[in-house]
Amino acid sequence: MRIFAGLIFPDTGTVSLAGKPIEGPDTDISMVFQSYALYPWLTVYDNIALACSHKTCHRN
């Protein structure tokens, strides 16, 4: 599931979905984690900013 979501990459070979190679996270694909998680490739600030980019999150 993490490979299809573009969160991790296979050790060998390639993975494609609907004929398109999966090269990283895509806005058309989502994944619900069973536990809270941060994106390891983002900084702490960027992880928080991503959560606050939702329309219902207020700046203060």
UniProtKB/TrEMBL annotation:
It is an enzyme of class 3 (hydrolase). One of its GO terms (molecular function) is ATP binding. Keywords: ATP-binding, Hydrolase, Nucleotide-binding, Transport. The keyword Ubl conjugation does not apply. InterPro entries: ABC_transporter_ATP-bind, P-loop_NTPase. Gene3D superfamilies: P-loop containing nucleotide triphosphate hydrolases. Its EC number is 3.6.3.-. Belongs to the ABC transporter superfamily. This is Bicarbonate transport ATP-binding protein CmpC. It comes from Serratia fonticola. The lineage of its organism: Bacteria, Pseudomonadati, Pseudomonadota, Gammaproteobacteria, Enterobacterales. The gene is cmpC_2.
